[in-house]
Structures are given as C-alpha cells and as structure tokens.
Amino acid sequence: MEQKIKTYGRSELAQLYFPKLLQKSAWQKFKSWLTINPALRSLADLPRRTFTPAEVQLIYTQLGEP
C-alpha cells in the first residue's frame, strides 16, 4: 500500500515502520535508522516533532515506504 506524502509527527511515522512497538520504542528505533543513514542523519536531531512532506519523501526514498 502506498503511503501518503504529508506532514507526519515523528512518532506517527516511526509507528508506520514499526507498528508492533510502543510509540516511544518505535521512535527510538526509527531515530537509530535515521542516524546511521548519512542522507537522513540531520533529521534525527531536529528540534521539532514533525517531518515535512519533503522530508517524508526523502525518508521514503532512502528507507522505502513503510
């Protein structure tokens, strides 16, 4: 199923990738994925709690859709 490109809360997006994990655990695991990917590393430590549609598109390009 193709995911919609829109603004996502970081935990909301993380739970799309890790639906069986609790919200906090899903974000921690997703953040570790962002950190090890050079193209996404800067997204791991953003001060805001959302990803813009452009950032979501970049994540989908690098990691594949959830």
Q: What's the arrangement of secondary structure elements?
A:
Blueprint lengths: L7 E2 H8 L5 H14 L4 H4 L5 E2 L1 H11 L3
Antiparallel strand pairs: 1-2
Q: What is the gist of this entry?
A:
The chain is mainly α. It has helices at 10-17, 23-36, 41-44, 53-63; strands at residues 8-9, 50-51.
Note down, in words, how this protein is organized:
With 66 residues, the protein is mostly helical. The chain contains four helices and two strands. It has helices at residues 10-17, 23-36, 41-44, 53-63; strands at residues 8-9, 50-51. It has a two-stranded antiparallel sheet. Helix 1 packs across helix 2. The longest helix is centred in the middle third of the chain and has 14 residues, at 23-36. It is globular. The N and C termini lie close together (9 Å).
Using DSSP, what is the number of strands? 2
- Profile the largest sheet: 2 strands, antiparallel
Radius of gyration, in angstroms, nearest whole number: 11 Å
- In terms of per-residue confidence, which ranges show pLDDT below 50 for 5 or more consecutive residues? none
By helix and strand content, what is the structural category?
mainly alpha
Described by its quaternary structure, the protein is single chain
Distance separating the two termini: 9 Å
Principal-axes geometry comes out as globular
Q: Which sequence of SSEs, written as H and E, runs from N to C?
A: EHHHEH
Q: How do the strands line up in the largest sheet? A: 1-2
Beta-sheet strand percentage?
5-15%
Please work out how many helical segments DSSP would assign: 4
Average pLDDT across residues? 95
Helix amount: 55-70%
